[in-house]
Structures are given as C-alpha cells and as structure tokens.
Design brief:
This protein is an all-alpha fold. Helix content is 42%, strand content 0%. It has two domains: 1-30, no CATH class; 31-83, no CATH class. It has four helices and no strands.
Length: 83
C-alpha cells in the first residue's frame, strides 16, 4: 500500500473505514476537518455554511486517494446522508 509506506504505517494501520467510523488512520488523530465538524455538530462538511472550505480543499490536494470526496459530499448535500 502506497499510503502505508508514505506514512510508515503497517498495512493494518492504514485500513480506514471513513471519518465517521471507529477504524480510521493514525493520521486522522490530528485531523482539523473531523474536529471542526464535531465542534459544529455536523456529520458531513457539505452540511456546513462554509463548505467547501480551504481546509477541505487542502486535504483533498494532499490526499488525492480520496478523489470521490467531492462527489460524495455533493450527493450528501443534495439528498441527505440517510439516503
């Protein structure tokens, strides 16, 4: 796994099931985006009035393996995450 090698994680440590899961990357422990969403009481960035913010854009450029981020957040914004 390229991401595991890049951050010096084991393959098991590099398995991530998303921001809302209990199994996230060690990298996520310092995530400003997760902290921001928690403080604002939202589940997804697209629920925020500041969406898309500079922090989210910076994350996407640094973590291009999450290319589906924009499409997924737009879908959540348009139909809601429960759908």
């Amino acid at each position: 796994m390229v991401l595991a090698a890049q951050f010096h994680y084991t393959e098991e440590e590099s398995k991530c099931y998303g921001c809302r899961s209990d199994k996230r990357l060690p990298y996520c422990e310092k995530c400003k985006i997760f902290t921001c969403a928690t403080e604002r009481g939202i589940d997804f960035c697209s629920q925020c009035d500041a969406y898309p913010c500079d922090d989210l854009k910076q994350f996407q450029s640094a973590m291009p393996h999450r290319i589906e981020l924009w499409e997924n957040l737009e879908k959540v914004k348009s139909i809601g995450y429960r759908q």
